[in-house]
Model the fold of this input.
Amino acid sequence: MESKTIVVTGGTGFLGSHLCKRLIQEGNRVICVDNNYTGSLENVKQLQDNPNFSFILHDIIHPLEIDTHIDQIYNLACPASPRHYQGKASVFTTKTCVLGVLNMLELAKKHNARIFHSSTSEVYGEPSVHPQPENYRGNVNPIGIRACYDEGKRCAESLLFDYYRQEDVDIKVVRIFNTYGPNMNPQDGRVVSNVICQALAGEDITLYGDGSQTRSFCYVDDLIEGFVRMMNTPKGFTGPVNLGNPGEFTVKELAEMVISKVGGKHAIVYQPLPKDDPTHRQPDITLAKEKLKWEPKVSLSEGLDKTIAYFKTRVEKKK
Done:
């Protein structure tokens, strides 16, 4: 496989760090771009001495100039958990989704590079169709507390497809469903990291709502495989393509599984469901199976074992 020069924005984050590692392993030159708002250089520590890896501290809200020729751009930069994109960070999140994508599209246009964009299942909002196929247009509150992310990502998709139609920019768009695994930020407020960290700390487990809301949890290695396959599809196949695990679990089932693996006695404490939090989320991955020959391989039980092991090492480092 011919070596490529690839930009990964959001490269020190949860997904970005795994992607950088995968691309380096395949012999590519990787330019990791991040402002480290939710990411950390610790996530790419093992790559920093590799001659094919370089890091640029940069916020993609501002234009990015790169002198060397670029073959591909993976745009993963954006806060992706409600704890990080709501409140004081809401305007910043919208700017990252809209101005950031605009700047990356201009970079792709300048270098005649293919651009991959990580959109989200949140574009479907509180779905009235279940599971969600790509042609479902969604049910999003445009003025709610999550709109900075939901509508920001929807606007980003609009920009990508307009650049594809008007500027002939080669785009690839995926919609990510709940993903988990090593390198997750323990403070990101997502249900998997919350439950594991509370269980490891011997605390009660906090769930929001009555625990019956469902999620479909995809292990990070499976997702990254989908990324790479999508990026390397023939020109003209743009997506969007759902990437996620169609196995559906309630958040209570997830909590009980983590408790059984970690051990100890943990009460489950219920708090009010946050506003506009979706009650159901499950991908229809028919298109991914057809076009990418992709579907998840890692079971939730196996993936949780690996993720719990990672968080245990984080706890031990703090001691």
